[in-house]
């Protein structure tokens, strides 16, 4: 799952994840999406840019 | 001392504090970060959790959710009359009961007090798959950022000195090398004279790359441009996590500083046995 807040500054970034993922998968430039979602600082931007969702991969091994 | 706001809304504020010392500016910053209390989830009673994450990860994620805090309603548990047992004056209770498949969001937390709702309702807590279930009860208490960051009302909160740009026109030949070097676009050449772009002075980060660029042009020992920091003016940036408006954070931090210094005066009076003269006090 995407972390609730940015590790560095503490801004709540997780609500932006689903919108970000949707638009990124549609082929939009991540820079434009992050600017649009109001993530200004590079600490918050890297949270979404570098995130990998593994919840679905973990699910079969309960 | 003077405060001039450049920007002020519920989520973020930018202001210039003038006529203050660096010590006072830092006191204000620290008070805003670690001395203004807010609500955050502290205890979680988990009745059922068959999701892919462990109980403690779930509890940690719940703790980080900012909660709207009305400090006229809630008091810290240590100051409460219930004797740290937990009552509606010091504790806000939430219940969460969700069955998969679906994603659990912060809006699924059902608060006992409708005033203390999560500040953002779209925070994903956990994704549940077919047959998975979460049933829990969470208790939020009031505390300060001094104890744990989850009680911090601010996210980005800091200041820098006000930049002062001095251009020595006697030796500046308006070559424009400093303009290319400036990462914030503060400088420009107009009518063959180097000057600061209007309203961009506050963006200057005091990096002094312009001074180095000026020297690299072979101008001599002294650069034609000097960047100084005004030691008595500070540009503050304060961002709220949503638990309370920024203005309230600033006011409460200032009240905290006032109370601390009043307490100190009282202690000193007690020790010395002499009442502090009102004129000296204020």
From TrEMBL, chain A:
One of its GO terms (biological process) is DNA-templated transcription. GO terms for cellular component: cytoplasm; DNA-directed RNA polymerase complex. Its EC number is 2.7.7.6. Its main location: cytoplasm. PROSITE patterns: RNA_POL_N_8KD. GO terms for molecular function: DNA binding; DNA-directed RNA polymerase activity; zinc ion binding. It is found in: Cytoplasm. Keywords: Cytoplasm, DNA-directed RNA polymerase, Metal-binding, Nucleotidyltransferase, Transcription, Transferase, Zinc. It is an enzyme of class 2 (transferase). NCBIfam families: PRK04016.1 (NF003089). This is Dna-directed rna polymerase subunit n.
From TrEMBL, chain B:
GO terms for biological process: DNA-templated transcription. This is Dna-directed rna polymerase subunit d. Its EC number is 2.7.7.6. GO terms for cellular component: DNA-directed RNA polymerase complex. It comes from hydrocarbon metagenome. CDD domains: RNAP_D (cd07030). Belongs to the archaeal Rpo3/eukaryotic RPB3 RNA polymerase subunit family. Coiled coil: none annotated. Keywords: DNA-directed RNA polymerase, Nucleotidyltransferase, Transcription, Transferase. Residues 163-192 form the 4Fe-4S ferredoxin-type domain. GO terms for molecular function: DNA binding; DNA-directed RNA polymerase activity; protein dimerization activity. It is an enzyme of class 2 (transferase). InterPro entries: 4Fe4S_Fe-S-bd (IPR017896), 4Fe4S_Fe_S_CS (IPR017900), DNA-dir_RNA_pol_30-40kDasu_CS (IPR001514), DNA-dir_RNA_pol_insert (IPR011262), DNA-dir_RNA_pol_RpoA/D/Rpb3 (IPR011263), RBP11-like (IPR036603), RNAP_Rpo3/Rpb3/RPAC1 (IPR022842), RNApol_insert_sf (IPR036643).
């Amino acid at each position: 799952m995407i972390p609730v807040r940015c590790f560095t500054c503490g801004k709540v970034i997780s609500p932006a994840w689903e919108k970000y993922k949707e638009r990124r998968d549609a082929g939009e430039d991540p820079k434009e999406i992050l600017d649009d979602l109001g993530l200004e600082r590079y600490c918050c931007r890297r949270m979404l840019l570098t995130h990998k969702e593994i919840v679905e991969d973990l699910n079969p091994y309960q | 001392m003077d405060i001039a706001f450049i920007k002020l809304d519920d989520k973020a504020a930018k202001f210039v504090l003038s006529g203050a010392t660096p010590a006072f500016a830092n006191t204000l910053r620290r008070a805003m970060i670690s001395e203004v209390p807010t609500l955050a989830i502290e205890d979680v009673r988990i009745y059922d959790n068959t999701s892919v994450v462990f109980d403690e990860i779930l509890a940690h994620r719940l703790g980080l959710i900012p909660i709207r805090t009305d400090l006229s309603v809630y008091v810290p548990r240590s100051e409460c009359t219930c004797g740290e047992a937990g009552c509606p004056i010091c504790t806000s209770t939430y219940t969460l009961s969700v069955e998969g498949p679906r994603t659990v969001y912060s809006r699924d937390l059902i608060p006992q007090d409708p005033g203390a709702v999560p500040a953002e309702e779209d925070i994903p807590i956990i994704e549940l798959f077919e047959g998975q279930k979460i049933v829990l009860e969470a208790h939020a208490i009031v505390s300060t950022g001094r104890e744990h960051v989850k009680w911090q009302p601010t996210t980005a909160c800091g200041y820098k000195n006000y930049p002062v740009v001095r251009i020595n026109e006697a030796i500046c030949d308006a070559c424009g090398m400093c303009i290319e070097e400036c990462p914030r676009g503060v400088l420009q050449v107009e009518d063959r004279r180097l000057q600061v772009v209007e309203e961009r002075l506050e963006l200057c980060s005091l990096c002094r790359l312009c001074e180095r660029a000026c020297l690299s042009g072979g101008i001599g020992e002294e650069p034609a441009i000097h960047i100084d920091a005004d030691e008595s003016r500070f540009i503050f940036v304060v961002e709220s996590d949503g638990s309370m408006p920024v203005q309230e954070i600033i006011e409460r931090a200032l009240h905290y500083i006032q109370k601390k210094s009043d307490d100190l005066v009282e202690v000193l009076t007690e020790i010395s046995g002499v009442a502090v003269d009102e004129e000296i006090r204020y």
